[in-house]
Amino acid sequence: MAENLPFTVIGGYLGAGKTTLLNALLANAAGLRAAVLVNDFGSVNVDVELIRSHEGDTINLANGCMCCSLVGGFADAINQVRVRADRFDHIVIEASGVADPAKIAQYGQMYGLPLDGIIVVVDAEQVRTQAANKYVGDTVVRQVGQADLILLNKADMVSSDEIAPLRAWLAEMAPGTPVIETVRSEVPLAVLLGVHGGRVTARADAGASTSASHTDAYETWPIERVFPLPRPALERFAAGLGEDIYRAKGIVSLQDDPGRRYVYQQVGSRWSLGPGADWGGEARRTRLVVIGHRGATSSGRLAAAVN
Predict the structure, then answer these.
(1) What backbone phi and psi angles, to 5 degrees, belong to 137?
(2) pLDDT in tens, 87-110
(3) What are the structural domains, with CATH classification, of the chain?
């Protein structure tokens, strides 16, 4: 059912690097079957070797992903996904460069889709100039303020002395929102996308890059608990992760509903906890994965936070 597909909105002003991010996602899906809704096929340079068929406003890819054009409208694109919902794990929607990503998120929720998060890509070299522009500034500032996670892209285009003021400005525009510095929108898939229903945990985690830059920048902390968690403890945990934690996800055994597993996912300060399948004969335990800036926390601190 399409209603069970989590969706991620990618926003950001023109030229920030959204299309580069989508290209990387399609080329390196690592088994994640994504339905990607885009404004213009022409701007997404899909590898011709990946294209299995091209049917009007839809491109089917050999890796199980699909691109669907938004030119015919959001409803038409969603309906294209609905008829093939069992083939996908996740929906990714690219907002146009002048659109409010939060409005796109609202559209998706109107169709009953669970929102995984809003990721906004900003141009490190241009974003403050764009924000000060009397014609487009309101749009740029609004986009930044709607983000659950900000990719400060083209970080190689500014000096190291400019990064700290940029981060301070972003913190003012979007208080508490994590910021990741990127070059060519390069970020592990596991940071971008969460887990829904336990279906894509392994595939999403497998998408994390093993390049030197990623190894240096990110760290993953697993948490496992064999006893059911009190709901207030999980709420405190989610609220206390901090700005250097980009993503948390996993399966939770809850004290107040011991017969059912719960699916937990978080990006930035946005987090959700939804019922999953019954445990059946499987051992009831909590398994979480936290992804963040290297050195941001420790397994011991995280484990103590869910006690």
Answers:
(1) -55, -45
(2) 999 999 999 899 999 999 999 888
(3) 2-191 (3.40.50.300), 210-305 (3.30.1220.10)
